[in-house]
């Protein structure tokens, strides 16, 4: 049970932070022009897969 919680807590925090990030990404661009919106879209398209890969590597290597 403790091992399950140790594995679940970081994943839970990652999920919560992902939702907070999604809220920021959807609320901030509403006040900008199309060039800034395109920059947000590119940043999101690069950051989401990169953070997923980094989290997976960290889990597989036994990191935090």
Percent helix: over 70%
| Poorly predicted parts | none
Shape: elongated
Beta-strand residue percentage: under 5%
What is the radius of gyration?
Answer: 15 Å
In whole angstroms, the N-to-C terminal distance is: 18 Å
By DSSP (H or I, 4+ residues per run), the number of helices equals 2
State the order of secondary-structure elements, H for helix, E for strand.
Answer: HH
Largest sheet: none
- Strand segment tally: 0
Question: Strand pairing plus helix content: what structural class?
Answer: mainly alpha
Mean of residue pLDDT values = 79
Write the layout of secondary structure elements.
Layout: H1 2-27, H2 34-60
Question: How would you portray this structure in words?
Answer:
The chain is mainly alpha-helical and 64 residues long. The protein has helices at residues 2-27, 34-60. The mean pLDDT is 79.
């Amino acid at each position: 049970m403790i091992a399950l919680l140790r594995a679940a807590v970081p994943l839970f925090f990652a999920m919560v932070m992902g939702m907070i990030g999604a809220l920021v990404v959807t609320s901030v661009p509403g006040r900008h022009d199309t060039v800034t919106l395109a920059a947000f879209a590119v940043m999101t398209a690069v950051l989401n897969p990169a953070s997923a890969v980094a989290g997976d590597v960290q889990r597989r290597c036994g990191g935090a």
